[in-house]
Design a protein that fits this description.
2 strands, UBC core domain-containing protein, 85 residues, alpha+beta, UBQ-conjugating_enzyme/RWD
């Protein structure tokens, strides 16, 4: 994936940091967990396009915590997206 330019958006909800940001990756990667919800792009009520527990609240079965920073979230997602495994 080193050759791809990744384009995406971060939406910070009104309830942030209690609610996780909505992260949409517009660049197709052909990786299931990254492209899992590409059908959500362009919808009126945005939802993250990637399937990562950190992007869901604990009430929704995820692992998001208000203590997480945007920089730590971004670093975690980028590591997961570009890793080969």
């Amino acid at each position: 994936m080193a050759h791809l330019t990744l384009v995406g958006t971060f939406h910070i909800p009104d309830r942030y940091p209690e609610s996780p940001p909505i992260v949409q990756l517009h660049t197709p990667t052909k990786r299931y967990n990254v492209d899992a919800y590409r059908c959500e792009l362009g919808k009126k009520t945005p939802r993250s396009t990637m399937c990562f527990d950190i992007l869901r609240s604990q009430a929704a079965g995820g692992t998001w915590k208000p203590e997480y920073t945007l920089s730590s979230l971004f670093a975690s997602l980028m590591s997961a997206i570009v890793s080969c495994t």
